[in-house]
Amino acid sequence: MIVTNMARRFPGQALAVTKRLGAIAFFVIVGCGQAAYAGITITPTSWNVVGLDSNSPNTGPDTFQIGARICNSGGTAVTSIVGTFVWDSSSAFINLSGANTLNVASLNAGACTDLYFPVTVTRTSSAYNATRSYHISVSGTGFSTVSTLTPREIYVEHLISQNRNSVNSIVGPTTVFVGQTYTYTVNGSTATQGYEQLEAFLNLSNVIFQVQSIATTYSAPAGGANDKFYADACGWDNNPLSGTYRSCIGPANYSGGKAGGTVSTTYTVKVLSAGTTTASTLIMDFSGSSYHYNNDFGVGINSITITSLNPPVPSVGLTKSVSPTTAPQLIPGADLTYTIAFGNTGTGAASSFVVTDPIPANTDFKVGSAISSLGTTGLTVTIAYSNNSGGTYAYTPTSGGGGAVPGYDSAVTNVRWTFSGSLSQSSPNNTGNVAFTTRIR
Q: For residue 114, which of 43, 199, 11 has the smallest C-alpha distance?
């Protein structure tokens, strides 16, 4: 048997030879200089069931979020990603109410991102049991177009209002800025044991908000968690060609085949464009062969203002001075008092700020001299000391410490003031000062 010297024919590449069932198979392992290709996948992240109130189509929900997750399993980033919602059939009752294409600038290797498209059902009894087929496709630079499975469809159900599902609170800002990232949290509750199918979500405009991530927790089952707002607890059949379509077929994705109880869902979103919008909530479930929604439907943030102006930014400046500054006081044994004045001249309040200052060379810290003058700032302060050049702040000054004269401590190297509260950008609540005293050796 003759084996060709492929290492000589293909410099810089390694050769692995495997013998299997009497055959020789050659595998060329590409060297480090070869580009790694991207592997893009797309999977649904939402339930295909939507609906209208079973008694009155003009009340209750009519808009639902339909989404998909894009993941890059390759070894290199992909760019210029475009997600497109595509209708595969017609219906006068089921339509998009937002953008049908969404853009993502880039997706790093190993990263995922979600795309959500709001779908609205026409408020008429004729819409019950209507269906419309669709898929979501993704294209971009460096990979071939991929799509969600077909056939898949959106199905309009009869939804029953019930008080077992309720929204307890929604927390998030009402004034936001283009280009910035924010979080909104929906806290709700369902029947204690949860349901086979559960969606608890915010209806957000996909023109104004881009969902970066979603984190959900459930009390049932204990410790239940999700990275979507849709819990397919029982293993739902979404294939309209299947004999078990719109039923639980398993395997269960949560212990006991149900999820819910106390539900908390946090959205991290990026603001795309200016305007005004709302953030309404919906909790929808399947249990006992029927479909339900929360009777406090519509609870949410009634008005969110989005502006393209730059967000408020704090700007805290420091000015240090010493007294006295001239002879004859500047002699060994004399005290020097250092004062650091601070002020916020920015456009927004400053919080969690810290002032640190070293003890000047050839001086000893005066025990108990570190003070603060906070005026009308409303701040509180904690003072700490270091004896190792600021490495840690766990030292307590003592009279005569480090061999200093009584009342002073030569071991103190730094003083730190840690402020709690917010320093306003508005006068007179935006200024204060701190001070300490040392003794010239």
A: 43
